[in-house]
Amino acid sequence: MKSISTVMIIISLLLGAASLAIASDAQEHIDSAIRHAEDAEIHGRAGHISALLEHAQESLTHARAAYKESSSENNQHWMTSIKHLEEAINQANQDHADVATDQVREALNHMRR
User: Fold this and answer.
1) Cβ–Cβ contacts within 10 Å for residue 44, how many?
2) pLDDT at position 12, please?
3) Counting CB atoms within 10 angstroms of each CB, which of 16, 51, 79, 81 has the fewest?
4) At what angle do helices 2-45 and 72-93 cross, to 10 degrees?
């Protein structure tokens, strides 16, 4: 009996540690997605299309990861953010800095919810 209790305690501790690691990874992706989107917006307002594109692409990578790891209640906001980032990248590739910046701003609005 004592060994079964010990095993159960060890399993519980390992599961708890794994849960914390997953939550930490999700938060890291959220923070990175927001930070890169903010940088993309700043560069977009300054007309730096290549920097806007670079940060929007990096933000998109982290937004997709955050979507995969987010709770179902936040999934819609992450999906909307991803769509806006994809459109921002599309517009930046066409040298439309103003429209791309607007799309990044919309993505940020959803990321922060």
Assistant:
1) 28
2) 58
3) 16
4) 30
Contact 38, 108 (CB under 8 A): yes
Positions in the chain whose pLDDT score sits under 50: 16-22
Nearest to 112 by CA among 84, 86, 81, 88: 81
The tokens of 55 are what? 């940060």
> Which of the 8 DSSP states describes residue 50?
H
Could you tell me the two tokens for 94?
Answer: 């066409």
Backbone angles phi and psi of 46, in degrees to 5? -85, -5
Domain ranges of the chain: 24-111
| CA nearest to 40, candidates 110, 89, 93, 95 | 89
As a whole number of angstroms, the distance between CA 21 and CA 29 comes to: 12
Domain 24-111 sits in which CATH superfamily? Answer: IL-4 antagonist (De novo design) like domain (1.20.120.660)
Q: What is the pTM (predicted TM-score) of this model?
A: 0.79
Place of tokens 């955050």: 66
